[in-house]
Predict the 3D structure of the following.
Amino acid sequence: EVARNGRSARACSYFASRQAIACADIITVPYPALLSSSSRQALGIPLRGNVVIIDEGHNLVDALESAYTASVPVRHFELSIQQTEAYLEKYRERLGSRSRYHLGTTLTLLRALHDRLLSALRGAEGTLEQ
């Protein structure tokens, strides 16, 4: 109905439906829009004071995992370490002690994540293929 009305009015039904959310008693949204606070905020969907019904709840864990998971290749950690080391070496004399400290902490974190990732890959596959 919204799409038909949009075509007949030669208007964008998507934006019209977004504006109608504030007046609606029931709305349906895909998992990503429901799980992301920034998406809910952009759409004007408050959770507080509302009833949320999750259809196909058995898919919720997978939806959460995909919404809050990122894949970072080992090579990206290696490049980040190299570039941070190069930056620190090049600008060490210009940096204040606090900046050097924070860069050192960043390097420690990057190296630890890199080493943990390599260990996990070796343990999962028996050998490491990058």
Observations:
- The mean pLDDT is 84.
- The helical segments are 2-9, 13-20, 31-35, 37-43, 60-67, 74-91, 97-125.
- DSSP finds seven helices and no strands in the chain.
